[in-house]
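Hey, quick one: can you model this chain's 3D structure?
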Amino acid sequence: MKKWLVLVLLFSPVFLSGCAEIQSGEVGVKRSLGKISEIPLNAGWHVYNPLITQIEIWDIKTQELKEQAQVPSSEGLISTLDVSVLFNVPATQAALVRKTVGYYYRDTILEPYVREAIRNIVSGYEVKALYSEKGRGEITVKILSHLKDKLDSRGIIIQDVLLRDVKLPASFSMSIEAKLRAEQESLQKEFELQKAKKDAEIEVARAEGVAKANKVITGSVTATFIKYLWVKGMQNSQSQVVYVPTEANLPILESKRWDLLENAKTA
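Sure thing. Here's the predicted structure for all 267 residues.
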């Protein structure tokens, strides 16, 4: 009996102790006899008595909360937003969050505040603000500011708010498509008008060139030049039809070889 008592006393610290492993990016929150320690446990191995002490492992890395919400605009049109909220609980704030909110703080306060911020802020904008880059930027900034005001003092740090996707109402999407189609048609007509004007300018320039050329040709044609062309043509061709102007302005039809004409002259 004494031997068993000795063995129990020797090995009781082993059976009555626990060991917790805390990795990088985590801290431990220790609770002993219902009291939560203000000092977080850093990464490493920690031995404790499980009968009176519990250690909770808290993730202090950046985390993402995804939220999809259907929200009305100021006109009453329903849009669907996919929002991501980046947050973390710093090591120095883990004990505070555990005391005031609890381990499941995401469900308790984070998600409700995110939903409230999305609905309250987006409802103050027209639906076209969700279509523009400027409008989406303003909305994300306001949601971020709202969440920081609500949660920073509670020990939850909001790092950023991202608007991942926006599904606009069907009626608004159709009106946007119609507007874009009308703009494309207007641009096409403007292009055709400019092309028609340019083609007309080209035709006018071409006609002016022809008129100037005809004027030059008309000014250079004389009776002597016509006789020269007739004689040259008779020399270069076996047989052809040539109109020769006469003193009475009546053409004489010639269709003879140049050598026949010469023989006729000598005869």
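One thing worth noting: Confidence is low (pLDDT under 50) at residues 5-16, 253-258.
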